[in-house]
Structures are given as C-alpha cells and as structure tokens.
Amino acid sequence: MQNQSPIIEVDELLIIAGNPNLRIFDVRTGPVAKSDYQKKHLENAVFVDLNSDLAAIGHPKNGGRHPLPKFENFIKTLGRLGINKDSRVVIYDDKNGANAAARFWWMLRAVGHNNVQVLNGGLQFAENQNYPLSSLDDSYPGTEYISDYEDWQLPQIRMVDVKKATQDSDAVIVDVREAPRYQGITEPIDLVAGHIPNAKNFPFIDNLDENGLFKSREALRNLYSELFEDYDKNKITFHCGSGVTACHSLLALDYAGFDIPNLYVGSWSEWSRNGL
User: PANTHER family recorded for this chain (predicted)?
Assistant: First the structure.
C-alpha cells in the first residue's frame, strides 16, 4: 500500500464506508474533546485520546509535552482499538488534520502500517459534505496487532542531535509553528517564547488552501522543493511545540512525494525547558 495517497477525500470515504476492514478514528483534542465526540462524530468513528493513546505524558523537560509511548505499548493500543494489519485506517480531527490526526498517521506509518490516511478537511468539511454523523460511543472489536518491527521505523532526532544540527551548515531545522510563536512574540503554551537557534519557519498552515484543504501535490512540491534540493534528507528535521503539529507537515511532504524527514518529537516544549 506504499503508493496509496496519505490523504483521503470525503467522497472517497463515503464509497468505502461499508468496508468491514475500515477503521475510522476521531482524534480531536482539548478538555472537551471526548464530550464533543459524544455529541457528534462521523458515523462509526472511534475516539482516540492524544494524551493517553498517542503519548506517554511525563515531565516536558524530558521528551516534551507529547513524547511517544513505548513501541510495545502503542502496539497494544492498536489491538485494543480494533486495528490489525489488514485494517484500512482513516483518521480525522477538527483542525484540518493539524492536530492529532497527522500524529496518529505518523505513528502508524512508523510501526509499518501503510494503509492509513488522513481525511482532507477533517470533521467540519465532512459535515459540510453531508457525511453521516452519529452520537453513539462507537468501538471496534479488540484484536491483536502483530508488527514486523520492534521499534519505530520513521526517522527521529533527539535533543542532543538537534543541538549539533544548530551548528551544522549542512543541516536544517524546520519550525512549523505559527510565525508569532517562532518569532517569540507570543507563546500560549510553553514557558519560554522563541525558537531553536538557526531554525527556519515553515508554518504548517501553509500546507492548506483558503478552504482548509491540503494544497495540491504540485503546490506542495513547489513550496518545499527548495528546502529538499538544498539539503540531504537525513539532515532535515521538522518540529513544532510538542511533536504533534509537525506531523501535519510530514504528511504534506509525503503527499507531495518527498521522503519523510526527521521528526524531533520533543520539539520546543522540551528544548525550551533545557536552557539551550
């Protein structure tokens, strides 16, 4: 399934909605995410919690606000959610994929599950397209997920390596946060405002058009081509505030046909707490 687009359109999802192997997941976040899900979500969609299912929350100084869970724990989570190796997984959130949908996509790809897509436009666009909605607390039968691997397969980089990259002219660090956060004008979440030294700002919002949909492959290739032409892909690192929204840009890059570069999961939330 490597040639399958990482993004699925609402009309495409409607066509496959009756597929018994289909698994749809709602990964919106925030203090009222679960209650909002219970009020209204896409039919058959199961709620996934960023903090408990897609992260191992500890002290942000050690791994950031949303560090990855242990590989083996995530594999167990997949089985509990009803995902096996034959499942076709579709993920959405209420932030055009820029919240936890892309993070879940990255994690599934990182365990070798390639049959996974993010819904273009997310919940709002699907609702506008009259996709069937539900208020049931849906679930899928538990199963067992057997991975071919014992560790994450997509490239990651740790804080010590990021520090080296700040002093390496052959490396590039990409910050996908909004420009005011990158510039240190505002910081609504973390304790310190600013950015990692020598990081470039490519805001994730630029992956989307005026309708909140992903830009065309051609447009995204044009957006990122200079970055990828000038640097070895192994020396390109993307990050955000806590390793979640950065995955939106990794998704866009994969959609545009680029190799997926390094993800710094700890991101600004870890870096800024270590006085670097």
Answer: SULFURTRANSFERASE, THIOSULFATE SULFERTANSFERASE
